[in-house]
Amino acid sequence: MTDQTASLSSFKSEEAQKKLRKRHWAERRFRMYGIAAILFALAFLVFLFTSIFTQGWSAFLQTSVKLPVEFSREVINPSGNPEAEDEIFQANFVKLAREGLYKELGIDPKDRKVRRDANRLLSRGVDVQLRDMVLRDPSIIGTTEDVWLLASDNADALLKGSIDRETPNDRRAVNDQQVAWIDQLVDNGDMKKKFNTGLFLNGASSNPETAGLGVALIGSFFMMLTVILLAVPLGVCAALYLEEYAPKGKIADTIEVNINNLAAVPSIVFGLLGLAVFINFFGLPRSASLVGGLVLTLMTLPTIIITTRAAIRAVPPSIREAALGVGASKMQLIGHHVLPLSLPGILTGTIIGLVQALGETAPLLMIGMVAFVVEYPATPLDPATGLPVQIYMWASSAERGFVERTAGATMVLLAFLIVMNSLAVYLRNKFERKW
Amino acid sequence: MEAKVEDRPATKVEEPAEPKKTGQSAPAAPGELKMKAADVNLWYGDKQALYDVNLKVFGQSVTALIGPSGCGKSTFLRCLNRMNDVIDICKVEGDIRLDGEDIYAPDVDPVLLRARVGMVFQKPNPFPKSIFENVAYAPRLHGLCATKAQMDEVVETSLIKAGLWEEVKDRLDAPGTGLSGGQQQRLCIARAISVNPEVLLMDEPCSALDPIATATIETLIDELKENLCIAIVTHSMQQAARVSQRTAFFHLGKLVEVNDTSTIFTNPSDQRTQDYVTGRFG
After folding, report:
1. C or N: which end of chain A has fewer Cβ atoms within 10 Å?
2. What is the mean pLDDT of chain B?
3. Are B112 and A327 a contacting pair at CB < 8 A?
4. Cα–Cα distance between A160 and B127 in angstroms, integer?
5. Which residues in chain A have Cβ-Cβ distances shorter than 8 Å to B111?
6. Given CB atoms, is A320 within the 8 Å cutoff of chain B?
């Protein structure tokens, strides 16, 4: 030991040099492990994003076809009474669309086989499209208009290249005749891919081309609203009490341990709890976004309490002393100093909790939010789904259109998460104060 | 309890072997008795931090509390405006009076007490707000200023008294945390005197400052004591000698000796005081 303090020259010996080289190498290696770990993680992230993006971007485009549709009065409204909505609802709009298609393609409507092939170019959702047009503006009855109608899943797939033209006719989902028609329409500019507003507006549908995230978006919105309205005030108040008022002791310790444990409880357990308490005991409706929001509130509460407590604890004691020293009461101390100073931390924690809640699927499955809901939910008590649940449901469908929609919906969800996380970072930087 | 107040400038000198009672042996200081602590015992949980402290603090003068680290001088100072209340495990026994009123009486609101007994801390701790807001905070809290003009005046007077006005009058909206350490501490003093307290407690106010800023603060203390009763905890014996009229020496939670500053530094009656002020320990 005494040799080491002798002089600097002793470090120049061969052995000391070797030791030094070994230490430097060890340090470099240690740094390289870190870089390797980060690169590995980044590679996976890039892989994940590219895979989702390449699969999902096409979901934002949907093939439509422009057809001259004659809104014939005999078909839509034979009685001539514009008040007769029942009549309009039951009218055979598919027939109108198909007649427009035959005209456009210049084919003989008498040939049943040809007719059937042509019919398959149109989506099964065209009747709703036309009916909505008529209901919106009944004056178009009796006129002929060029209308962009949804093409079928298969036509869409051919245009997006997911059906290979090289595949032999008998093994291809669209036959040669249909391919020829599609090419003809595309060449005329009467069939093209347009931005898919239906993806964001439509509800559930068994046809991929008319299925959308509308109901899921509204459901997720209601759930987030419930979580914000319940979890944030509850969590912040609980954290404030525990941190500022609760006497330190066994009870406080027990509560603290339990809150930390709650944060680690698997989310499906919260789903079971919600099923047992909110639906079976309190009798709230199944599949309702209110129940989903309540369950997610329970799940988010520990996160918010823990982050809020950490933020409150980070307020420097000197500021507390300063406020108390000039005669601020406890409540004034909290209201004027502790809360404003811990606000960035509270906001960050809240948003991270919300992001967790937004992406949560398992508890929603337990309370029946995995449902086929076509109509927009008007209130949080109406049946709805959520974004992640919609992804789950689409992922289990086989049609080609649902595969791309699954990836597309994932992109929408990721976009929400990224926006919310950026908001958290922005708010933290904006409100952060230096002392 | 008026009877106890009457005996204040007692001139009889106890024998030095009885350090506990030296608190009452102080010769007359300028000004009248402001605060009086009698038999103060304090515990942090099971650990006793103060033993039977008896000390008087007089108006229009500076009382310095000196002693080695951990001797309880800051703890005692914090008893005088009940800042120890916020520590859960802290228990105080004894009688502390401000103008003859028991400040630990159940009907005394610690918040109002702290408006009368202001405090300046070791580390400058301005609020992360503007300079104006820092000073205006306490008057606003206690509803002292009805109008904006009154508030402006209070802020200006406080900053002038704290010797900071000339340096900051053009940037009252700038954040208080952007000032230098010495300026921040003067801002904290301005904040403390903005509600016209009767007593100002200073807990090592210069320990984080350079000598020049320290000198400024010391001059300031000298000026402030004309209208205030000041108790200052300090580690620097030179500082105690420079600014204070009376000095109390604490050791291991006990008040060893209290007397005129000149007496403490030139002719202390207790051996421990002698050892400490001559630098033999602490």
Report:
1. N
2. 84
3. yes
4. 61
5. 327-329
6. yes
Interface of A with B in 219-278 (CB under 8 A): 247-248
In percent, how much of chain A has pLDDT > 70? 97
Alpha-carbon span A177 to A185, nearest angstrom: 12
Taking the C-alpha atoms of residue B88 and residue B96, their distance in angstroms, rounded to an integer, is 20
Name the residue facing A319 among B114, B119, B127 (closest C-beta). B127
ipTM of the modeled complex: 0.80
Q: Please check whether residue A225 is in contact with residue A217, taking contact to mean a CB–CB distance below 8 angstroms.
A: no
Lowest mean pLDDT among A126-135, A213-222, A284-293, A378-387: A126-135
CATH architecture of A214-431: Orthogonal Bundle (1.10)
Distance CA B89, CA B85 (A): 9
B248 and B258 in contact (C-beta within 8 Å)?
yes
Task: Show the domains of chain B with their CATH numbers.
Answer: 2-6+30-262 (3.40.50.300)
| CA pair distance B84, B76, nearest whole angstrom | 9
**DSSP bridge pairs for B255:** B250
Q: Which residue ranges make up each domain of chain A?
A: 61-195, 214-431
- Name B210's Cβ contacts closer than 8 Å, sequence gap at least 6: B181, B182
pLDDT of residue A69: 87
Distance CA A146, CA A65 (A): 10
Above 80 in pLDDT, residue A79?
Answer: no
**Strands B117-120 and B199-203, bridge-based pairing:** parallel
Among all chains, which residue has been given the structure tokens 């009698």?
A: B38
Q: Distance (Å, rounded) from C-alpha B141 to C-alpha A327?
A: 8
The continuous run of DSSP H or E covering A192 comes out as strand A191-195
Q: Where are the beta strands (DSSP E) in chain B?
A: 33-44, 47-58, 62-66, 90-98, 101-102, 117-120, 199-203, 229-233, 246-251, 254-260
Distance from CA of B77 to the nearest CA of A (A): 12
Task: Say how far apart CA B235 and CA B230 lie, in whole Å.
Answer: 16
Pick from A324, A327, A337: CB nearest B127: A337
Q: Please answer whether residues B201 and B57 qualify as being in contact, where contact means their C-beta atoms are separated by less than 8 angstroms.
A: no
Chain A residues within an 8 Å CB radius of B120 = 325
Report CB contact under 8 Å: B138, A248: no
